Amino acid sequence: MAEIQLRGIEKLFDGVRVLESLDLTVHDGEFVVLLGPSGCGKTTALRIVAGLETPTAGEVHIGGRDVTRLSPRERDVAMVFQSYALYPHMSVADNIGYPLRIRGVPAPERARAVARVAHSLEVGHLLNRKPRQLSGGQRQRIALARAIIREPAAFLMDEPLSNLDAKLRVSMRGEIRRLQQRLDATTVYVTHDQAEAMTMADRVCLISNGVIQQFAPPQELFDFPANRFVAGFVGNPPMNVLDIRLDPDRQAVVVAGAAIPLGDRYAACAAAAVEQLGIRARELTLTAPDEPTTLPGSVYVVEPLGDETYVEVLIGETRVTVRADRGWTAPLGAPVGVRIDPANACFFDPSGRTVVHRVGEGRPPPKEE
Amino acid sequence: MSEDDVLSRHFTRRDVLRLGVAIGGVAATSAVLAACGAGGSSAAPTLGPTAAGATAGATKAGGKLVIGAFEDGALAPFKSTILPMFQDATGTTVEFLTEPYDSFFAKAFQDGQSKAGQYDIYIMDDPWIPQYAAAGILEDLGQHGITMDADYPGPFADLGFWPPRQGPRVKGFESGDPKLIALPTIGDLQTLTYRNDVFTSGAPATWDDLVSQGKAGVTAGKVKYGFVFRGVKGNPIVTSFYPVFRSFGADFFDDQWNVTFNSDKGKAAADFFVGPLKAIAPPGVAEFDSDQEGAAILGGDAAAIIQYSGNAIKSDDPAQSKVIGKLDFGVVPKREAAIAQIGIFIHGVSASAPNKDNAIAFMNWFATNEVQTALARAGDLPVKTPAFTDSQAVTDHRLLPVALAQLNAGAQARPRTPDWSKVESIIGTELNVALAAGSGGAAAMDRAATQVKDYLTQQGYF
Amino acid sequence: MAAATTPGTLGRTLRGAGLDRVLPYLMLGPAIFLVLGVVVYPLIEGLRSSTGFFRFGRMVRSVGLDNYRQAFADPAFGEALLTTARFVFLAVTIETVLGLGLALLLAREGRFVRRIRATLILPMIVTPVVVGIVFRLIYASDVGMLASVAHLFGLNSPQILSNGDSAFWGLVILDVWEWTPLLFLILLAGIQSLPVEPFEAARVDGAGAWRTFVDHTLPLLRPTILVAVTLRAIEALTTFDQVYVLTRGGPGTSTQLISIYGYQTFFQFQQVGYAAAMLFIVALVVILASGFAVGLMRSRGR
Question: Among C36, C83, C162, C245, which would you mutate to test the B interface (most chain B Cβ atoms within 10 Å of its Cβ)?
Answer without folding.
Answer: C162
